[in-house]
Design a protein that fits this description.
Elements lengths: L38 E3 L2 H4 L2 H14 L2 E5 L5 H15 L3 H4 L11 E3 L3 E2 L2 E2 L3 E6 L4 E4 L9 E4 L10 H26 L17 E7 L9 E6 L5 E6 L5 E4 L5 E3 L7 E5 L1 H6 L9 E4 L6 E8 L6 E2 L18 E2 H9 L18 E2 L4 E2 L8
Protein backbone atom coordinates (compact mmCIF):
# COMPACT_ATOMS: atom_id res chain seq x y z
CA UNK A 1 0.00 0.00 0.00
CA UNK A 2 1.33 3.43 -0.87
CA UNK A 3 2.15 5.77 1.96
CA UNK A 4 -0.49 8.19 0.76
CA UNK A 5 -3.12 5.58 -0.02
CA UNK A 6 -6.01 5.45 2.45
CA UNK A 7 -6.04 2.32 4.58
CA UNK A 8 -8.88 2.95 6.99
CA UNK A 9 -12.65 3.30 6.43
CA UNK A 10 -12.51 6.89 7.67
CA UNK A 11 -9.99 7.77 4.98
CA UNK A 12 -12.29 6.51 2.25
CA UNK A 13 -14.35 9.68 2.41
CA UNK A 14 -11.69 11.94 0.94
CA UNK A 15 -8.32 12.05 -0.78
CA UNK A 16 -5.49 14.53 -0.76
CA UNK A 17 -6.46 17.59 -2.85
CA UNK A 18 -3.28 17.25 -4.93
CA UNK A 19 -4.88 14.22 -6.65
CA UNK A 20 -8.15 15.92 -7.58
CA UNK A 21 -8.64 16.56 -11.30
CA UNK A 22 -10.40 19.66 -12.64
CA UNK A 23 -14.07 18.89 -13.20
CA UNK A 24 -13.76 18.98 -16.99
CA UNK A 25 -11.03 16.30 -16.95
CA UNK A 26 -12.55 13.77 -14.57
CA UNK A 27 -13.35 10.34 -15.96
CA UNK A 28 -16.75 8.79 -16.39
CA UNK A 29 -16.91 5.70 -14.22
CA UNK A 30 -18.65 3.70 -16.93
CA UNK A 31 -15.85 2.18 -18.99
CA UNK A 32 -16.44 2.67 -22.71
CA UNK A 33 -15.32 -0.35 -24.73
CA UNK A 34 -14.30 0.98 -28.13
CA UNK A 35 -14.51 -2.37 -29.89
CA UNK A 36 -12.64 -0.67 -32.71
CA UNK A 37 -9.02 0.00 -31.76
CA UNK A 38 -7.05 -1.80 -34.47
CA UNK A 39 -5.19 -5.03 -33.81
CA UNK A 40 -2.13 -5.63 -36.00
CA UNK A 41 -0.87 -9.16 -36.53
CA UNK A 42 2.91 -9.03 -36.88
CA UNK A 43 3.15 -12.61 -38.12
CA UNK A 44 2.90 -11.01 -41.58
CA UNK A 45 6.58 -10.13 -41.15
CA UNK A 46 7.37 -13.84 -41.25
CA UNK A 47 5.05 -14.90 -44.09
CA UNK A 48 5.99 -12.26 -46.65
CA UNK A 49 2.85 -10.09 -46.46
CA UNK A 50 4.78 -6.99 -45.44
CA UNK A 51 3.24 -4.66 -48.06
CA UNK A 52 -0.25 -5.30 -46.72
CA UNK A 53 1.04 -4.85 -43.18
CA UNK A 54 2.65 -1.50 -44.03
CA UNK A 55 -0.57 -0.29 -45.62
CA UNK A 56 -2.45 -1.25 -42.47
CA UNK A 57 0.08 0.51 -40.25
CA UNK A 58 -0.30 3.70 -42.30
CA UNK A 59 -4.09 3.67 -42.01
CA UNK A 60 -3.95 2.87 -38.31
CA UNK A 61 -1.44 5.62 -37.53
CA UNK A 62 -3.39 8.20 -39.53
CA UNK A 63 -6.79 7.37 -38.06
CA UNK A 64 -5.93 6.31 -34.50
CA UNK A 65 -2.34 6.79 -33.39
CA UNK A 66 -2.80 3.75 -31.17
CA UNK A 67 -3.15 0.03 -31.89
CA UNK A 68 -2.46 -3.39 -30.40
CA UNK A 69 -0.02 -5.96 -31.77
CA UNK A 70 -0.23 -9.74 -31.56
CA UNK A 71 2.23 -12.43 -32.68
CA UNK A 72 4.97 -9.96 -31.84
CA UNK A 73 7.70 -12.46 -31.00
CA UNK A 74 8.24 -11.47 -27.36
CA UNK A 75 8.42 -14.69 -25.27
CA UNK A 76 5.27 -14.89 -23.17
CA UNK A 77 7.05 -16.62 -20.30
CA UNK A 78 9.36 -13.59 -20.06
CA UNK A 79 6.37 -11.24 -19.89
CA UNK A 80 4.92 -13.34 -17.04
CA UNK A 81 8.23 -13.30 -15.16
CA UNK A 82 8.51 -9.54 -15.64
CA UNK A 83 4.96 -9.05 -14.35
CA UNK A 84 5.62 -11.25 -11.32
CA UNK A 85 8.88 -9.45 -10.47
CA UNK A 86 7.13 -6.08 -10.74
CA UNK A 87 4.42 -7.17 -8.32
CA UNK A 88 7.00 -8.48 -5.86
CA UNK A 89 8.78 -5.13 -5.89
CA UNK A 90 5.65 -3.04 -5.36
CA UNK A 91 4.37 -5.38 -2.61
CA UNK A 92 7.24 -4.27 -0.40
CA UNK A 93 6.97 -1.61 2.28
CA UNK A 94 7.25 2.01 1.29
CA UNK A 95 10.56 2.24 3.15
CA UNK A 96 12.03 -0.60 1.09
CA UNK A 97 10.86 0.91 -2.19
CA UNK A 98 12.26 4.31 -1.29
CA UNK A 99 15.72 2.83 -0.97
CA UNK A 100 15.86 3.17 -4.77
CA UNK A 101 13.98 6.47 -4.96
CA UNK A 102 14.81 8.86 -7.78
CA UNK A 103 16.08 12.35 -7.03
CA UNK A 104 16.63 15.63 -8.83
CA UNK A 105 20.02 14.53 -10.18
CA UNK A 106 18.96 11.04 -11.34
CA UNK A 107 15.54 10.45 -12.91
CA UNK A 108 15.85 6.66 -12.73
CA UNK A 109 14.35 4.80 -9.77
CA UNK A 110 11.21 4.76 -7.65
CA UNK A 111 8.75 7.65 -7.45
CA UNK A 112 5.35 7.98 -5.79
CA UNK A 113 4.37 11.59 -6.41
CA UNK A 114 4.44 12.11 -10.16
CA UNK A 115 2.37 14.92 -11.67
CA UNK A 116 0.67 15.01 -15.09
CA UNK A 117 -0.70 18.38 -16.24
CA UNK A 118 0.17 19.65 -12.73
CA UNK A 119 -2.13 17.16 -10.96
CA UNK A 120 -0.72 14.26 -8.96
CA UNK A 121 -1.25 10.79 -10.43
CA UNK A 122 -2.76 7.95 -8.38
CA UNK A 123 0.15 5.57 -8.92
CA UNK A 124 3.70 4.65 -8.02
CA UNK A 125 6.43 3.92 -10.58
CA UNK A 126 9.92 2.49 -11.03
CA UNK A 127 11.92 3.74 -14.03
CA UNK A 128 14.71 1.64 -15.55
CA UNK A 129 17.06 2.82 -18.31
CA UNK A 130 17.62 0.54 -21.28
CA UNK A 131 21.18 1.81 -21.74
CA UNK A 132 22.78 2.11 -18.31
CA UNK A 133 23.65 4.90 -17.87
CA UNK A 134 21.43 7.18 -19.92
CA UNK A 135 23.30 10.30 -21.07
CA UNK A 136 21.19 13.45 -21.18
CA UNK A 137 21.50 17.23 -20.97
CA UNK A 138 22.23 18.50 -17.48
CA UNK A 139 19.92 21.51 -17.81
CA UNK A 140 17.39 23.11 -20.21
CA UNK A 141 19.75 26.06 -20.81
CA UNK A 142 20.74 25.99 -24.51
CA UNK A 143 24.12 27.52 -23.59
CA UNK A 144 24.87 24.77 -21.07
CA UNK A 145 26.67 21.91 -22.81
CA UNK A 146 27.18 19.82 -19.69
CA UNK A 147 25.84 16.27 -19.81
CA UNK A 148 24.46 14.18 -16.98
CA UNK A 149 24.37 10.41 -16.56
CA UNK A 150 21.34 8.68 -15.12
CA UNK A 151 22.23 5.33 -13.57
CA UNK A 152 19.75 2.60 -12.76
CA UNK A 153 18.92 2.07 -9.11
CA UNK A 154 18.41 -1.67 -8.69
CA UNK A 155 16.38 -2.98 -5.76
CA UNK A 156 17.75 -5.90 -3.74
CA UNK A 157 14.40 -7.68 -3.94
CA UNK A 158 13.36 -9.69 -5.79
CA UNK A 159 16.88 -11.10 -6.22
CA UNK A 160 16.50 -11.84 -9.95
CA UNK A 161 14.87 -8.48 -10.70
CA UNK A 162 17.83 -6.98 -12.54
CA UNK A 163 18.34 -10.03 -14.76
CA UNK A 164 14.65 -10.20 -15.73
CA UNK A 165 14.46 -6.46 -16.47
CA UNK A 166 17.51 -6.55 -18.73
CA UNK A 167 16.13 -9.53 -20.64
CA UNK A 168 12.75 -7.81 -21.00
CA UNK A 169 14.38 -4.56 -22.13
CA UNK A 170 16.26 -6.45 -24.84
CA UNK A 171 13.04 -7.93 -26.21
CA UNK A 172 11.30 -4.56 -26.12
CA UNK A 173 14.17 -2.99 -28.03
CA UNK A 174 13.94 -5.65 -30.75
CA UNK A 175 10.18 -5.12 -31.08
CA UNK A 176 10.63 -1.34 -31.12
CA UNK A 177 12.97 -1.53 -34.10
CA UNK A 178 10.51 -3.79 -35.94
CA UNK A 179 7.77 -1.24 -35.39
CA UNK A 180 10.04 1.66 -36.28
CA UNK A 181 10.81 -0.01 -39.60
CA UNK A 182 7.11 -0.46 -40.34
CA UNK A 183 6.35 3.16 -39.47
CA UNK A 184 9.23 4.33 -41.65
CA UNK A 185 8.07 2.23 -44.60
CA UNK A 186 4.50 3.45 -44.12
CA UNK A 187 5.77 7.02 -44.52
CA UNK A 188 7.38 6.11 -47.83
CA UNK A 189 10.90 6.08 -46.36
CA UNK A 190 13.59 3.41 -46.26
CA UNK A 191 12.99 0.90 -43.50
CA UNK A 192 16.12 1.93 -41.61
CA UNK A 193 15.71 5.68 -42.15
CA UNK A 194 15.00 6.44 -38.48
CA UNK A 195 17.46 4.03 -36.87
CA UNK A 196 20.34 6.50 -36.70
CA UNK A 197 18.47 8.67 -34.21
CA UNK A 198 18.52 5.88 -31.63
CA UNK A 199 22.29 5.32 -31.43
CA UNK A 200 22.88 6.23 -27.80
CA UNK A 201 19.15 6.06 -27.11
CA UNK A 202 17.53 7.43 -23.94
CA UNK A 203 14.77 4.79 -23.86
CA UNK A 204 13.49 3.50 -20.54
CA UNK A 205 11.03 1.05 -19.05
CA UNK A 206 8.50 2.25 -16.51
CA UNK A 207 6.84 -0.14 -14.08
CA UNK A 208 3.44 1.25 -13.04
CA UNK A 209 1.36 0.25 -10.02
CA UNK A 210 -2.10 1.76 -9.60
CA UNK A 211 -3.54 0.97 -6.15
CA UNK A 212 -7.31 0.94 -5.57
CA UNK A 213 -8.57 4.51 -5.32
CA UNK A 214 -11.31 5.54 -2.85
CA UNK A 215 -12.50 8.36 -5.14
CA UNK A 216 -12.07 7.34 -8.80
CA UNK A 217 -14.60 9.99 -9.77
CA UNK A 218 -12.09 12.65 -8.62
CA UNK A 219 -8.64 11.25 -9.38
CA UNK A 220 -6.93 9.57 -12.32
CA UNK A 221 -4.27 6.88 -12.38
CA UNK A 222 -2.54 9.04 -14.98
CA UNK A 223 -3.96 12.30 -16.22
CA UNK A 224 -4.53 13.04 -19.89
CA UNK A 225 -1.28 13.37 -21.82
CA UNK A 226 0.59 12.50 -24.99
CA UNK A 227 3.87 10.60 -24.92
CA UNK A 228 6.83 12.81 -25.78
CA UNK A 229 8.91 9.90 -27.09
CA UNK A 230 8.84 8.24 -30.53
CA UNK A 231 6.95 5.03 -29.72
CA UNK A 232 5.49 3.45 -26.61
CA UNK A 233 5.10 -0.32 -26.25
CA UNK A 234 2.77 -1.07 -23.37
CA UNK A 235 2.04 -4.25 -21.49
CA UNK A 236 -1.15 -3.94 -19.46
CA UNK A 237 -2.74 -6.51 -17.16
CA UNK A 238 -6.36 -7.60 -17.49
CA UNK A 239 -7.88 -4.99 -15.18
CA UNK A 240 -8.35 -2.28 -17.81
CA UNK A 241 -8.54 1.48 -17.35
CA UNK A 242 -6.46 2.80 -20.24
CA UNK A 243 -8.44 5.23 -22.39
CA UNK A 244 -7.49 6.97 -25.64
CA UNK A 245 -9.09 10.04 -27.17
CA UNK A 246 -10.52 9.82 -30.65
CA UNK A 247 -10.17 12.78 -32.96
CA UNK A 248 -13.82 13.63 -32.27
CA UNK A 249 -12.96 14.17 -28.59
CA UNK A 250 -14.50 10.92 -27.34
CA UNK A 251 -12.64 8.87 -24.73
CA UNK A 252 -12.66 5.16 -25.54
CA UNK A 253 -11.38 2.21 -23.56
CA UNK A 254 -8.38 0.18 -24.74
CA UNK A 255 -9.60 -3.28 -23.87
CA UNK A 256 -6.84 -5.61 -22.65
CA UNK A 257 -6.13 -8.44 -25.10
CA UNK A 258 -4.22 -11.41 -23.67
CA UNK A 259 -0.61 -11.56 -24.89
CA UNK A 260 -0.88 -8.30 -26.86
CA UNK A 261 1.01 -5.03 -26.54
CA UNK A 262 -0.52 -1.59 -26.95
CA UNK A 263 1.45 0.72 -29.28
CA UNK A 264 1.25 4.52 -29.06
CA UNK A 265 2.58 6.88 -31.69
CA UNK A 266 4.53 9.53 -29.78
CA UNK A 267 5.19 13.22 -30.29
CA UNK A 268 8.53 12.66 -32.01
CA UNK A 269 6.96 10.65 -34.81
CA UNK A 270 4.27 13.31 -35.12
CA UNK A 271 7.00 15.91 -35.70
CA UNK A 272 9.08 13.69 -38.00
CA UNK A 273 5.99 12.97 -40.12
CA UNK A 274 5.03 16.67 -40.14
CA UNK A 275 1.59 15.89 -38.66
CA UNK A 276 0.79 13.00 -41.03
CA UNK A 277 0.66 10.83 -37.91
CA UNK A 278 -0.59 12.36 -34.68
CA UNK A 279 0.39 11.41 -31.16
CA UNK A 280 -2.64 10.12 -29.28
CA UNK A 281 -3.85 11.63 -26.02
CA UNK A 282 -4.54 9.00 -23.37
CA UNK A 283 -5.14 8.56 -19.65
CA UNK A 284 -5.68 5.85 -17.03
CA UNK A 285 -8.93 5.71 -15.08
CA UNK A 286 -8.59 4.75 -11.42
CA UNK A 287 -10.41 1.72 -9.99
CA UNK A 288 -12.15 1.67 -6.60
CA UNK A 289 -11.47 -2.01 -5.81
CA UNK A 290 -8.76 -3.45 -8.04
CA UNK A 291 -5.08 -2.65 -8.37
CA UNK A 292 -3.64 -2.39 -11.86
CA UNK A 293 -0.16 -2.98 -13.28
CA UNK A 294 1.37 -1.92 -16.58
CA UNK A 295 4.81 -1.69 -18.19
CA UNK A 296 5.42 0.93 -20.88
CA UNK A 297 8.65 0.87 -22.88
CA UNK A 298 9.32 4.42 -24.07
CA UNK A 299 11.47 4.34 -27.20
CA UNK A 300 13.49 7.56 -27.28
CA UNK A 301 16.37 8.95 -29.38
CA UNK A 302 19.82 10.06 -28.23
CA UNK A 303 20.12 13.31 -26.27
CA UNK A 304 21.92 15.11 -29.11
CA UNK A 305 19.16 14.50 -31.69
CA UNK A 306 17.45 17.60 -33.02
CA UNK A 307 13.84 16.67 -33.64
CA UNK A 308 12.27 18.27 -36.71
CA UNK A 309 10.08 17.35 -39.69
CA UNK A 310 11.99 15.08 -42.05
CA UNK A 311 13.11 16.77 -45.25
CA UNK A 312 11.75 13.92 -47.38
CA UNK A 313 8.25 14.56 -45.99
CA UNK A 314 8.13 18.33 -46.37
CA UNK A 315 7.84 20.75 -49.27
CA UNK A 316 8.19 24.49 -48.79
CA UNK A 317 5.20 25.17 -51.07
CA UNK A 318 2.87 22.19 -50.69
CA UNK A 319 3.73 20.89 -47.21
CA UNK A 320 6.06 23.27 -45.34
CA UNK A 321 7.52 22.23 -41.98
CA UNK A 322 4.94 22.61 -39.22
CA UNK A 323 7.42 22.51 -36.34
CA UNK A 324 10.61 24.31 -35.46
CA UNK A 325 13.36 21.88 -34.54
CA UNK A 326 14.14 21.21 -30.88
CA UNK A 327 16.89 19.35 -29.08
CA UNK A 328 15.67 16.15 -27.43
CA UNK A 329 18.06 16.31 -24.48
CA UNK A 330 17.08 19.89 -23.65
CA UNK A 331 13.42 19.02 -24.08
CA UNK A 332 13.71 16.18 -21.56
CA UNK A 333 15.74 18.26 -19.12
CA UNK A 334 12.88 20.78 -19.16
CA UNK A 335 10.31 18.01 -18.67
CA UNK A 336 12.16 16.52 -15.71
CA UNK A 337 11.80 19.73 -13.71
CA UNK A 338 8.12 18.92 -13.13
CA UNK A 339 8.76 15.53 -11.50
CA UNK A 340 9.16 16.91 -8.01
CA UNK A 341 6.88 19.90 -7.74
CA UNK A 342 3.89 21.55 -9.33
CA UNK A 343 4.86 24.08 -11.98
CA UNK A 344 3.48 27.58 -12.41
CA UNK A 345 3.16 27.08 -16.17
CA UNK A 346 2.29 24.24 -18.51
CA UNK A 347 5.11 21.74 -18.97
CA UNK A 348 6.87 21.80 -22.32
CA UNK A 349 4.91 20.31 -25.26
CA UNK A 350 5.56 20.01 -28.99
CA UNK A 351 2.93 22.66 -29.67
CA UNK A 352 5.39 25.18 -28.21
CA UNK A 353 7.43 24.55 -31.36
CA UNK A 354 4.58 24.64 -33.86
CA UNK A 355 5.05 27.03 -36.76
CA UNK A 356 2.33 29.33 -38.04
CA UNK A 357 3.01 29.02 -41.75
CA UNK A 358 0.85 32.01 -42.60
CA UNK A 359 3.54 34.34 -41.33
CA UNK A 360 6.38 31.86 -40.76
CA UNK A 361 6.47 32.52 -37.02
CA UNK A 362 6.65 30.02 -34.22
CA UNK A 363 3.53 29.75 -32.10
CA UNK A 364 3.97 30.00 -28.30
CA UNK A 365 7.71 29.65 -28.61
CA UNK A 366 8.94 32.50 -26.43
CA UNK A 367 9.61 30.32 -23.37
CA UNK A 368 11.52 27.48 -25.04
CA UNK A 369 14.22 28.08 -27.62
CA UNK A 370 16.73 25.27 -28.02
Amino acid sequence: MLSWAPNTPAAMAEIDPTFIQPVEHRAKLTFTDSGEIPVVDLSALENGAIDLLVTGICKTCEEWGIFQVINHGVPLDLVRRMEAAMKQFFDQSIDEKRKVKRDETNAMGYHDSEHTKNVRDWKEVLDIAVEDPIVISASPDPQDHELRKYYNKWPEYPPDFRKICKEYAGEMEKLAYKLLELVSLSLGLAGDRLNEFFEGQTSFIRLNHYPPCPSPELALGVGRHKDAEALTILFQDGVGGLEAMRKNGEWVGVKPIPNAFVINIGDIIQVWSNDKYESVEHRVVAHSEKERFSIPFLFSPAHHVNVKPLEELTDELKNPPKFKDYNWGKFMATRNRSDFKKQAVENIQIHHFRVNNNNNNVVKQTTYNF
